Amino acid sequence: xxxxxxxxxxxxxxxxxxxxxxxxxxxxxxxxxxxxxxxxxxxxxxxxxxxxxxxxxxxxxxxxxxxxxxxxxxxxxxxxxxxxxxxxxxxxxxxxxxxxxxxxxxxxxxxxxxxxxxxxxxxxxxxxxxxxxxxxxxxxxxxxxxxxxxxxxxxxxxxxxxxxxxxxxxxxxxxxxxxxxxxxxxxxxxxxxxxxxxxxxxxxxxxxxxxxxxxxxxxxxxxxxxxxxxxxxxxxxxxxxxxxxxxxxxxxxxxxxxxxxxxxxxxxxxxxxxxxxxxxxxxxxxxxxxxxxxxxxxxxxxxxxxxxxxxxxxxxxxxxxxxxxxxxxxxxxxxxxxxxxxxxxxxxxxxxxxxxxxxxxxxxxxxxxxxxxxxxxxxxxxxxxxxxxxxxxxxxxxxxxxxxxxxxxxxxxxxxxxxxxxxxxxxxxxxxxxxxxxxxxxxxxxxxxxxxxxxxxxxxxxxxxxxxxxxxxxxxxxxxxxxxxxxxxxxxxxxxxxxxxxxxxxxxxxxxxxxxxxxxxxxxxxxxxxxxxxxxxxxxxxxxxxxxxxxxxxxxxxxxxxxx
Length: 564
Hints:
By secondary structure, the chain is of the alpha/beta class. The chain is built from 16 helices and 17 strands. The two termini are 31 Å apart.
């Protein structure tokens, strides 16, 4: 396996972060729907009705064209393209629709269990232990039958797409060997696969698009899902209606409709109604702007059920200037998060973090969103990260997982700290100073908070010297001294990547109605589907979201073609 990466690909990724671009994942109500269980009494129930809205009424006279196919796939992301490419190869009759003008960038991670690469590396993954760990993250709300599809089929799904990618691009496979976190209370299986150089050139979804087109199919872009064609009882879906530049198109599906439309992070009305805690700690957007929950809403109008416990995917990387609070700016559908840097990866390093009073408030060495949730209880919902000139050596020792690896990531090996932080240093959002006293002023600490901040640095250095975090229990190897100039500081909130609570499904990705019965002809894969996560995302199972999405999409096509 090659671990060679170009310096250009790393700097290019940093430039994308600086301008705030997004890598896509890779978004009349039946009376029963207004009775969906919600928390918070009448006020929350009112909010739920507001976000769900009323199913559009499209008169037959407004339908300018009608088409027929066996399988309608809505969404050309990781799940939709995996389904479409599989369907194309297996000879299924299908049509693929997407509201974008082109296929968005791929999130390059792919978690797969016990592939030929993990076996070659001697990293056999314990499926039962992995299942139990993921279920633990969800407090037992994981549907293990749904999870088993990923556990049992992800190796085949990845090896299928891996062959396609390597044949088309010449890229090689990079397998991330997971750190041993057992003594710290976590299990991190080796499951993350990427094609190197990643986020550079032709990516996985580009290859899948080519498979679809080479087999004689096209992707119908600029087709926005308006509603599903369904019965009034919430038992059957027979097609979908799309808004196009030429009017409304109805597509009848003989075998089914697959929703692969992503979550709802780009819908602030839904977010405030269903995930009110997110706004208390998030400052930046990492999500695709088309992930607006439209697929989820269409299914709910058709009688579907949805997860009751929210599950946001939040990274601790939303860099903002001093004085900026977490939360939305603006109202309703126009609300946005204030940060202009969608992800500054150094935010995920376990350096000392303090609140606006200048004091630590948590163990910084935890899964990404734990720090964010802890900051929701702090003034402004933000925290300040502090480190010194020895940061690259510290990061090497920290040995983080996934996209938090930084200097241990092949594309960033040897990078100077100022290069790693350029997206925030250049506009002055991250502060850099020759003395801690000067840094404190630049970060907005004054009076009692400045005194507390300087005392906290001294205390943190004491903990480092003792190699024991008696205050919050951070692992010794993830402590660091703050003594070597220049000194760096930056305020952070969370960066919202997506939502992973969605439509209730079974192990065949069939959507269930509010009575727990299958809605005939309706399927969901990826972030618009649920039944897997609750409360949080198991970030030490690196690449799980992308891996399960692609595996689910492929499963639907294989099952429909009789290949499973």
